[in-house]
Every structure is written in C-alpha cells, then in structure tokens.
C-alpha cells in the first residue's frame, strides 16, 4: 500500500475557510489532515508553490476541493488546481472529492461529467465529513482510534467552545456584533443588486426600519428582517428571509390587491461558530454558515430562482 504524508488535504478559497475548518475539526482526530491555516508553520520559509504542489499533487491520499466558481482563479488555488490536474493524468480522478459551497454549481469543464460530488447543502457539515472519511478509507486510510486522553482533550475543547458560544449569545457584545453583521449583509445586498441591475436584471432594494425589501422580479417580492428582542441577548433573534408572490402588508406599505402568498421562508441566527469567527447560521439549512456577503449572495440567488419558477398572472 502506498504511503502518504496526509490522508486528506483541503483546497479552498479564503471565503470558505470556515467550512474547511469545521470539516477539518471533525476529521483531524481520526485522520492526518492538511489545511493551510493549521499547517502554515510547517511550510513557512519554503517555496510556497513547490510545497503546495507537493501536497495536492503527491503527498495527500485524498484531496478535498471546496468548490465555488472562484476556485482555481485565485493565485494559490490556481497552483493547487494545476497540481491536481497534473496528478490526474497519472492517477485518474479517484484521489479527489469535490464539495461545492454554492448552490447548483457549474462544475469545471475539465472534470469528468461522471464524477460525483458531495452536496454540502444536502449532507450538512457532519454528513460531508463522514463521506470524506469513507472516501479516504476506501483509498487505504486507516482512521485512528482516539485514546481516552485524546477524547478527553476533544471534549474539553468542545465544552470550552460551547461556553464561549453561550456567552456570545447572552452579552451586549454578541448583540452589537449581530446588528453590525446585519448592516454588512444589507450593504452587500444593495451592492449585489446594483451589479445585477447593470447586467439587465432589475432588482430594486429598499430599507424600511428593520426590513430590507427586494422587488422587481414580478410577481415575487422578498423581505428580510432582523431585530433582536433584547440589548444583551440574542435569544430567539433571527434574520428572517421570506419570498412572497405578491406583496405582504408591512408598516408604512400597503399589501398587494390579492393576498400575498408566502413561497419560501428561511431563518438565520448569528452565532460564534468557532473561536474568533462569527457567522449567520441557517436554522433550516442543516447548520450551514454564511458570512454577511455570502448570505447576501445566497438570498439574491434564492429570490431569482423562485421568481423564475413562479407563474405571472395576467
């Protein structure tokens, strides 16, 4: 059996570091993993391009690509992509597992059409981690059975994180962070909408109190809102995203002539996902987490998808 330095190596864009870290945390107790943020000391002072090429092109048993359209276009992921493609000439594609981090991705044209990938939205983080471990095992990895001491250390880290998460949810700091994240989300919605409008799809945005209103894709309108109930607690505080056929009655607005029909409703809570990293977490999407910019992108995509499928009444 061929020996490898790592069982699993992650390749990803900076925006997906949160997903990579969560997967790595679930896998690293049992498998030898490579994630740049965790291994940067090992390759510091070396030729970065050569070091990365070695990991993805040779020394990792399984390469997990967290795929989005930008992957392979940034300087470092371009190096990783080229190493992966070169390795495929000799090894085929069985050493790779692609995990899209965006909805309905357009996979790279050079990737075989028969290549299956792990759907993060369908599987969730824990399901994706289990699928990756299974693929690594199929390729010859021998998952390490945790010792009692290692299990105790992991339990300690888990408890420490849960306590920090609890404190974040029940302090003024957490509330202020969530309010700022909603403002960042709101600005990203406006910027994305303007860019979309320049391409010929007119999506109008409007602010009214805590509401962020998206319109222009008749007959659908989308309403986002977020307002914490308490100054020092995020309990029951959700960013709500609702898509309607028609327009619902809102403070300061008249509803449509026909009663608005709710077509989609999603909720997001603002949480400490891991130390020093906060994100919007999908209550209805298997705990998937989003930066404010990612959530703005996700909301706009969902709005357009629903509007495209909704019949216009004439």
What would your notes on this structure say?
The chain has about 325 residues and is of the alpha/beta class. The protein has 2 domains: about 5-145, 3-Layer(aba) Sandwich (Rossmann fold); about 165-310. About 45% of the residues lie in helices and about 20% in strands. The protein has helices spanning about 15-25, 35-45, 50-60, 75-90, 120-140, 150-170, 170-200, 290-310, and strands spanning about 5-10, 35, 60-65, 95-100, 205-210, 210-215, 220-225, 240-245, 260-275, 275-280, 290. Strand 10 and strand 11 form a beta hairpin. Helix 1 (about 15-25) packs across helix 5 (about 120-140), helix 3 (about 50-60) packs parallel to helix 4 and helix 7 (about 170-200) packs across helix 8. The protein is globular, with a radius of gyration of 22 Å. The termini are far apart. The model has no long low-confidence stretch (mean pLDDT about 90).
Based on the model shown, name its key terms.
314 residues, alpha/beta, Rossmann fold, 2 domains, seven-stranded antiparallel beta sheet, four-stranded parallel beta sheet, 8 helices, globular
